[in-house]
Amino acid sequence: QVQLVESGGGLVQAGESLRLSCAASGGFSTINHMGWYRQAPGKQRELVAKITSGGSINYADSTKGRFTISRDNAPMTVYLQMNNLKPEDTAVYYCNFVGTTLGRAFDSWGQGTQVTVST
Fold first, then answer.
1. Residue 16 neighbours by CB distance under 10 Å
2. CB atoms within 10 A of CB 81
3. Those residues with Cβ within 8 angstroms of residue 100's Cβ, 6 or more apart along the chain or in another chain
4. Which candidate in 28, 31, 61, 85 could, as Cys together with 117 as Cys, close a disulfide (CB 3.0–4.6 Å)?
5. Percent of all residues in the chain with a pLDDT value above 90, rounded to a whole number
6. Distance between CA 70 and CA 1 in Å, rounded?
7. pLDDT at residue 106, rounded to an integer
8. 30-34, 58-62, 111-115: which has the minimum mean pLDDT?
9. Which residues pair with 106 in a beta bridge?
10. Cα torsion for 8, 13, 17, 20, to the nearest 10°?
């Protein structure tokens, strides 16, 4: 079973930066895509950024130009560099890996890390 461990959340002031990390452990054959999602209180979980195995990247309109998603393959880790943070970025951030292991599809989520941006 693929397990994801997140780190890097915290409390910052508006305009500051944070870098989130998400490391995968456990055996897997392929990773189709990795991404970051966030959920603010009272709101639905939304996509922040996603990167495919081929390197294609998508960002939410609200994060374009401020956030950067990247990855390392060994160990398999996805990062989210967040610059010029705004109070509206406050949320619990979750990483997500989708792929296959031993011929079976998996869709794994991290435990979530809190990001709080104060004015």
1. 14
2. 15
3. 28, 29, 30, 32, 106
4. 85
5. 86
6. 23
7. 93
8. 30-34
9. 99
10. 20
**Phi (first) and psi of residue 87, to 5 degrees:** -55, -30
Asked if 66 contacts 14 with a C-beta cutoff of 8 angstroms, the reply is no
- pLDDT tens digits, one per residue of 13-44: 999 999 999 999 887 888 999 999 999 999 99
pLDDT at 59 over 90: yes
Maximum distance among all alpha carbons in the chain?
48
pLDDT of residue 103: 86
How far, in Å, CA of 106 to CA of 9, rounded?
Answer: 25
Q: Rounded CA gap, 26 and 101, in Å?
A: 9
Phi and psi of 38, rounded to 5°? -145, 155
How high does pLDDT run on average in the chain? 95
At which residue do the structure tokens 């949320």 appear? 91
Pairing type for strands 91-101 and 104-109 reads antiparallel
